[in-house]
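Work Package 3 (structural annotation) set out to generate three-dimensional models for the target panel prioritized at the project kickoff. During this period the team completed the workflow that converts sequence records into discrete structure tokens, so that structures can be stored uniformly alongside our sequence database. As a representative example, we reproduce one entry of 582 residues exactly as it appears in the project archive.
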Amino acid sequence: MAAPKKGRSASAQSKPGRSLALILIAIVALTGGMFASGHTTPRLGIDLAGGTSITLRAVPEAGQENAINKTNMDTAVSIMERRVNGLGVQEAEVQTQGDRNIIVNIPKGTNSKQARDQVGTTAKLYFRPVLTTEVSGGAAPPTPTPSASNSPADKNSGDKATDKNSGDKATPTPSGSPTTQGRAVTDALKATPTPTPTPTPSTSPGGAPSGDESKLQAQYAALDCTKAAVRAKAGEGARPSDPTVACGKNSQGQWQKYILGPAAVDGTDIDKAQAVINTQAGAGWTVTMNFTDAGAKKFADITGQLAQKQSPQNQFAIVLDGEVVSDPFVREALTGGNAEISGNFNQESAQSLANMLSYGALPLTFKEDSVTTVTAALGGDQLQAGLIAGAIGLALVVLYLLVYYRGLSFIAILSLLVSAALTYTIMSLLGPAIGFALNLPAVCGAIVAIGITADSFIVYFERVRDEIREGRSLRPAVERAWPRARRTILVSDFVSFLAAAVLFIVSVGKVKGFAFTLGLTTLLDVVVVFLFTKPLLTLMARRRFFASGHKWSGLDPKSLGAQPPLRRTRRPAALPVDPKEA
């Protein structure tokens, strides 16, 4: 059994080129992916690229102190993200800090005042009847509209409304000439199901559209929901009691534009909304709504009016911050005080809609605690300072390696360069992939990682030198030192990674950037040592410069105080014993 083990070991030791080829392929692949994606530099955080950082503090309503909890804060974060995205902002960050603060980081190039107004105001959620709708920027062929009905099979689920936006049905598109469409809009405005005491929009004598109606028709005709700037201003300034225009996405991911009637139900009329899975009726994931007493009456009135109309005027739009997030239709009055929206939901989409509905009744407001603006010039100065600090740290490490390890420092420096290449390409790809942003603490984490990586090389080099001090030649010293060095490196890197993971979990804000970078570089240290440093030292041990123990190689047995070479000695033959003496 011993011979095969030695044979396999020798074979593995004689082919270090495989490991070197593997890591070279990885570097080439990552670099190619970086250039192919167009993201050739890491994404920079607010403190380096410049931008605005807004800190919002949650304030509960009177008697609702328990409203500050993780669920409500997460819901608020998701709504604020929608608001910031509605401004066309890219690479913004919205996250909780502590138990009652929300941090909004918006990069440069964004109207900071508009962003502050958007994220700091209370959400406005309304249920509005749909008067007319069509795909924005193009027409879609009419398709049958799904139906809705009461659900007696499941008394606990309440009434049911089918949500065509979450299902696989398209919205019927108005057809005919522009004149015919305009007349249809006017007729719809006349017959708007408006809750008392809100006045119904009127028309001028002779049946011609009034000035307000003509203006609304013009807004609808000009509305292009495919443009973020236009969507952000759709229905701007409209009161809850006024008809308005709005945008929303349909099930095919297309932008849809709407004319909506006056608000019939407010978000504050919702007592509770949640995503549930309906196994009894086979509807899959659904969203249930429970209304307050006042809200139940309003909802019953509006659904009763809508149920008497044809598509799309039998639909009500759930409008959050001016955007239609869902537009289910009804076939009968929903009078149970609770309702269920069903369609082609999965868990994520159902939970998202439930969160939006819950936010309309969220008993929280947010006060602006602080606003920090970092100019691009200041961010550039901080980045330059961080790079200078990193360069100084790297230079000191290289200088130490050159003075102490001499020829071995060549292997260490190449290993550092490989580690730097892997770190840079991965960070560049993680920006668009998971939204990773390189901030100043992350740069600090990368600088600290230089020392951690160099420490792994030093552990291995010292193990090799110990073997040489014991009188072994270089090639067996390299192989005998590796198992002991490997254990030490793995234990050391595990402790570093564990510390980074704990820090990432318990920390908030920018400190997470430090923890993430430290953890990433620690993992890369293991990869580089196993696939590059050790195989490269195995190859170098075959070169005369290192194998002969040149005084500049860093492995000179004389300067290391090596013992004489280990030699085996034969035991002296035992003298014959006289049987008589025995």
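The CA atoms of residues 416 and 453 lie 7 Å apart.
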